[in-house]
Design goal:
485 residues; mainly alpha; Glutamyl-tRNA Synthetase, domain 3; Arc Repressor Mutant, subunit A; two-stranded parallel ribbon; 20 helices; 13 strands; binds glutamic acid; cytoplasm; GluRS_core
Amino acid sequence: MTKIRTRYAPSPTGKMHVGNLRTALYAYLIAKHEGGDFILRIEDTDQERFVEGATEIIYNTMRDTGLKHDEGPDIGGPVGPYVQSDRQKQGIYMEYAKKLIDKGEAYYCFCDQERLNSLKREVNGEEIMTYDKHCLHLSKEEVEANLKAGKPFVIRQNNPTEGKTTFHDEIYGDISVDNSELDDMVLIKSDGFPTYNFANVVDDHLQQITHVVRGNEYLSSSPKYNRLYDAFGWKVPVYVHCPTITNEEHKKLSKRSGHSSYQDLIDQGFVSEAVVNFVALLGWSPENNQEIFSLDELVKEFNYKNISKSPAVFDMVKLKWMNGEYIKAMDFDKFYEMAEPYIKKVITKDLDLKKIAAMVKTRIEIFPDIEGHIDFFETLPEYDPQMYVHKKMKTNLETSLKVLKDVLPILEAQEDYSNDALYAALSEYVSKEGVKTGFVMWPIRTAVSGKQMTPAGATEIMEVLGKEESIRRIKKGIELLEAQQ
Ligand code: GLU
C-alpha cells in the first residue's frame, strides 16, 4: 500500500479562516489516522493577493493547534521546495506546461486584454468569459515569431468541447460535467507564474499527494484538474472536498461576525484545543455521539467517509459550551496563566488572585466571562436591599439586619480569616440560634458581595477580602438595612 500523504496548501493572504483551519485539520487527521505524512506547502503564486506576515500567521496557527507537519518550507523534506514561488524560480511549472504543449494539451495564447474583453458575455447577470481557442489555431511559425518578438503570452489548457468529464469525490460522489463547459483555463500567467489551477496539480503529483483535501469551492474546477492529470498520464488523487461553513443564519461566515478566523476566536477568549475540537465537528461526526475529542482522539476516530456534504453551521453557543468544558478540565496552573490578565483587568487591589481564579474556573465559558463574576471583589456595587429577601432561606429585611448585627462582633473578634476558621465561627452562631446555615450565610454573602450570584460562598469571599474590608461591607449592609426600617 502506498503511504498516505496529504497537504495543507494555504495562500498567504491574511488571517487563517475557520474554513482553512478545518481543511488543515482534516488533511492532518486523514494522514495521521493512517500513519501517513502531512505536508505544508505555501501557495504564493498570486503575487497580488500576497499579504506581508501571513506566512507567519500560518506557522503560528499550525504550531498552536498542534497540527505538526512532516515536511514544509521551515523544516524541508525530500520533495521541496515547499513554497510555490521558489518552485517557479526553478522553472518547474514552465517545464510541465511545455510538456503539455508538446502533447497538444496546452497552447500559447497571445490575445490582448481588448480581445479577451470582447469575448465577455452576461449570463444570469454575471459576466463570464469563455475563451474561443483563437490562438490554438496559430501556426507553429506564428507562435515562434510571437515568442521571438517578446509578445506577452499565457499558456492555456486545451480542453475538448464535446463529451463529458466525470470525476469522483469522496464526499460528493461522482460528478459529471459537459466538456463544453470547460473553459481553456490559463495555466501559466503572463507574469510567468502558474495559476493555482495548474500549480496545484503539478505540485500534488510531484509531492506524491495521495489525498487532496480542500473546500468545496474547488469542486467545480476539479474536472479541469482531472483532465490535466490524464493529459500527463498521472494518477488522480483521492478528492475530499469539504462542505461550506455557514453562520447561525445559514449565511456564509463573514469577516465581521467575529467567528471567521482562528485568531479572532483566540482573541475572544477561546482555548485553542476547544477551537480545534469544534472545527473538527464542522462537517464531520463520529459514529457515536462523543463531542469532546483531544487531537489524539480525533486522529484515532477520524474517518473522512463520515464527512457530510450538507453545510456545517458554526454554532457559537456550542463553541462556548465546549470551551467551558475545556476550561473545567484544564490543569489549574495553565488556567491561571490564561485567566490572570482577565482578572487583573478588574482587580487592582492586593488580593489572592489564585483563589479568585479557582472560584471561577468551573463557572465560565470564555475568559472574558471572568470579569462579571469577580468585579465585586474590587468594589462593592450599589445593591438593592430586596436582595436580602430569600424565600427558601426564610430571610427578610428584619432577619437579615439581626443576623448582620449579631455576627459583626464575632467577625470583629475573629483573627483567623481563613475560610475554615470563619466557617467554624459562624457555624457556632448558627447552632446557638438553632437556625439553618443559609439563614445566616445568605445575608452575609449579600453584604460582602452586593450580588445575587457569586462564584463562592460567604466565608470564601471574606477570606479573599480580608478582615478589614469584610467588616466594612457588613457595616454597610447594616446601614442599608437600617435605612429600610
Ligand atoms: N491555496 C489554496 C487556498 O488557499 C489551496 C486550495 C487547496 O487546498 O488546494 O485556497
